[in-house]
Amino acid sequence: MRKGKKFVLSLILVMALVLGLLGCSKESEKTITNLDENNSVVEVHEKQEEKGNIDELMDREEEKEEGEEKTAEEEKATEEEKEIESNSKEQRDTEKEETDTKKEEKNTKEISGEASKGEKDKKNNVTVIDGVEYTNYKGPVQGEIKYVEGRPAEQDSDRRKASGDIGSPYQVDLRVTTDFGHSKIYAKNVGMVKDEVGMEVLFRNLDIQTAYGGGFVNAINGIESKFTFFTGSQRKKEDWFYWVNGILAPIGVAEYRPEPGDVIWWDFHDWETTMFIPAVIGSYPQPFKSGFFGNNPGTVILYTGDYKNEAEQLKASLEKQGVKKVDIAVYDAKLLENPAKYYIVLGVWEELVKESTITNSRGKEINLLEETNDKNKFIGVYAKFEEGKLHALDHRGNKKTSHTQAGTIYGYAAGIGATKPIWIVAGTDDKGFKITFETLLNQPEKLKDAFGIVVSEKGVEKIPYI
């Protein structure tokens, strides 16, 4: 009985235990599902969020691990790439160094060659300006030298020495004389740099000193103005003057730019009687060949009487000497009042005078050639026709020689600054004219460095006398 009771109790206990477990299971399940809505949601959300955070962290960790793995792989790959790149760079650098070395060797050879050439150029003193080669050119003269003032015979003698001529495809004829062309100091064709001023040509070839700010040539080769730095009884009207192609230059040589082929003529003389001499004949065939400052208006040969043949001969001679634009025409004095061209007048003096009366621009009747003859010494004309004779004059207008049969060649201009001179080739008679004309045609060297000439059977006299 007791065994039966024990069995029943044990059975009941087991059943209760099973039921209790089932109840707990149900309660646990109910706790999750049957709580009030808010708590349930909160609890669920908290658990879900917790799981989400964990999952996320795990995901991130996985991602991190994956990333680390990937990064490791990438780093490994990068290292490999870097190594490859480094090797490539080293290879490229090596190749570049080899290339640079080769280039350097090549350049060294080229530079060496250029250096040799440069040394050669330096040795030969070659300077290239605007594509033109000049030899022995030391550059332009600067103000420190050019503008030195004082007494050149006593001061700064070392600094006024000529630097030397240059080799150049451009040449000018540089002449220096004293006493109206009677004494020659210098005569040479010298080089010039294109477009440089005339002062540069002087400083290279002559010992020059300037005054009045550098534009005035005060001394050449020690022969100085007797006016600039002197006073009282020591002061004299003796200075340097210059002509370009036989025309007195209206500007200073520091502004004048020579043209190739120009004749630049400097003369030192007394100017007390004749202040300005606008034209000289000693640069023949200039100005007819090159003109003045690059401008050539052309030449007209005017003739009187039966001298057309001589006019044609002179035209042919000028053309042979390189003169262009030469015409011939019968003498017309009106052309000489305001000349538009260069004129050369041929004839016997008396015949020319007869046809030289004109009414000038002011309505006054004048005789152009008689005026020239009367003013003579004041306008730089040192020949005078008078009472059938021709007189050669000195620079003060005094008669030095007289001829009954002779001729003269001289130039004059309409006034100071006039750049279209008129040349007169005239004789006392037909014979006097012809011997003078023959000198011009066949012995033009007799005109060289002459302000004017008188021609007679005795020969050629340079005028003015001194």
SSE layout:
Layout: H1 2-33, H2 37-124, E1 126-129, E2 132-135, H3 143-146, E3 171-178, E4 183-191, H4 198-205, E5 208-211, E6 216-220, E7 223-224, E8 238-244, E9 247-248, E10 263-270, E11 299-303, H5 308-320, E12 326-330, H6 334-337, E13 342-348, H7 349-354, E14 357-359, E15 365-367, H8 368-375, E16 383-386, E17 389-393, E18 399-403, E19 406-412, E20 422-427, H9 430-442, E21 452-456, E22 459-463
Parallel strand pairs: 3-10, 11-12, 11-13, 13-20
Antiparallel strand pairs: 1-2, 3-4, 5-6, 6-7, 8-9, 8-10, 14-15, 16-17, 17-18, 19-20, 19-21, 21-22
Summarize the structure.
The chain is of the alpha+beta class and 466 residues long. 38% of the residues lie in helices and 24% in strands.
